[in-house]
Specification:
This protein is mostly helical. Helices cover 42% and strands 0% of the residues.
Length: 66
């Protein structure tokens, strides 16, 4: 009896917990992200994800003044 290698199909893009999209970021911010990436050994993408998670968990919305 021979064993077969079973490989499951990869989920369609965006259905594995991540989505890809583009944003415009000023050059000085990119330079700071690259420095953090170098200093921590993490990818720029990982740094941005960590920062976004922190911001989402620590932000509040002020009432409108009008």
């Amino acid at each position: 009896m021979s064993k077969k290698l079973q490989i499951s199909a990869r989920p369609p893009k965006g259905e594995y917990g991540y989505k890809t999209f583009s944003v415009r970021i000023k050059s000085d911010i990119v330079e700071e992200l690259d420095r953090l990436s170098f200093d921590t050994g993490r990818s720029r993408n990982e740094i941005i994800g960590i920062m976004l998670r922190f911001a989402l968990e620590n932000c509040s919305i002020s009432p409108r003044d009008f």
